[in-house]
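Hello everyone,

My group is preparing for a crystallization screen and wants a predicted model to guide construct design. The compound we'll soak is zinc ion. Before spending weeks at the bench, it would help to have a computed complex in hand. I've included the protein sequence and the ligand's SMILES below. Output in structure-token form would be ideal because that's what our pipeline reads.
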Amino acid sequence: MVTATESRIQCDVDIDAPGRQAGYLRAPLSRNTSGWGTVEIPIVSVKNGTGPTILFTGGVHGDEYEGQIAVSRLARNLDPAIVQGRVIMIPALNIPAVMNDTRLSPVDNRDMNRCFPGNPRGTFSEMLAHFVDALILPHVDVSVDLHTAGHSGDSALSTNMHYVADSALRARTMAAAAAFGAPYNVVFWGVDEGATLTSSVERRGILSLGTELGGWGRVNVEGVRIADRALQNILKHFEIIEGRPETTQRDGSPGTRHMMVRDAAGYSFAPAAGLFEPRNVVGDMCRAGDLAGLLHFVEDLDRPPIEVRYRLDGILWMSAGPGRVQRGDAVAVLMEDYDEARAAA
Ligand SMILES: [Zn+2]
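Reply:
Good plan to model first. Here are the tokens for the complex, ready for your pipeline.
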């Protein structure tokens, strides 16, 4: 049972109860027009028999749509009769950012995925992060948090995971990623580790998968298709529903390609603010020294574009855009094939 004793957020769903429990988290938000106002965050728990608990979250960032769509769809349709275990679904976790269509919350201008493990007396995003960390995660065996590159770029359709030191957990996580069935699974050495939902999940020893299923501020058609199939695949992989994961890719290849972002040279950064013209799309094979793109200064007739080049051989995982970038923004991230020996080095 989720209790509200440590949190200002009320949960009107009993996630320990069998069957489909659907309702809202109610988070207090005082506004000019409603001093006692609340924000309602949809939550659905489907429980039957015995088995592990899976948490599916979407909308930690408001402008990342594929997870919101896929988790909402599953939350509407999952039949408790076919479930062995429990599935907790929060499709639009950071609801102020979701309704505002932005990465950051308009309430406190915070990135919720930099607020973990949160604070029950902190800002709105910190309060929300605390609720998830302290009152949801202790019930969870597997967390799948669905993201995209939002408005800050595009991504090759992929799951991602940190290189966790525990080799057994790492192997279980890679197996879960393969069952998820995105074209790529990226093992990486974290950016901003410590404050993300993933880091909170990992601190508790829970299996954690993230995703990048699109970006550029639009709904990626293939990203939604992969996400819908992947949620079913994950439930099958952990034997919560019957069946075998279906992981054939659009190009006919049989499954997920394990990749890694190990080398700092995988990142190319903008050396100045400007209008970035990328030369590749995500999924392209790129070579060290190739042109990643041109940084244009269209406001200045006398200033030629700056060439930004790749620094190693790899497949383009993340691509900048759309359009204007700031100095220091990552404009390209390359991934290499996963190599256990190099990973462990
Ligand atoms: Zn995100």
